[in-house]
Amino acid sequence: MALARRPPPELFKLALNRWTQPFWEATRQHRLLLARCADCGHARMPPTPFCPRCQSQQLRWQELSGAATVYSFTVVERAIMPGMQDHLPYVPAVLSLAGADGARLISNVVDVELSAIRVGMPVQVVWDDVPDQQVAIPRFTRVPEHSIR
Fold this sequence. Notes:
CATH class: Mainly Beta
Number of strands: 8
Structural class: mainly beta
Radius of gyration: 16 Å
């Protein structure tokens, strides 16, 4: 049974700017935020300087539940750089966020049997703290069958 593992922590390089800083500050508290245009309400994930719908630069932040579904994924089974061998396999995924009007987030599915991962699978956020960068990375794991209604 092969489980989806976490990618090597050294792959994570945080680059903050005024548009993304509120998102990453919230992760310290294990809160998942979505940027919305303050003028037209369009979901902007990742947060961008201009709304793709109305070009506004105004943002408001909405807290999400952390529930999502797998929209797309791949399994990485080969190390592409030294030190990655101990972190294989890992699963980068595009996730449709609940309550986000179709906005998606790129992250990883973790702690799930590879054979069980599928498009449409319900997942829930789990947090990987990165103390030296003072953030937490949102990852996603399978929602237990008994908790799906």
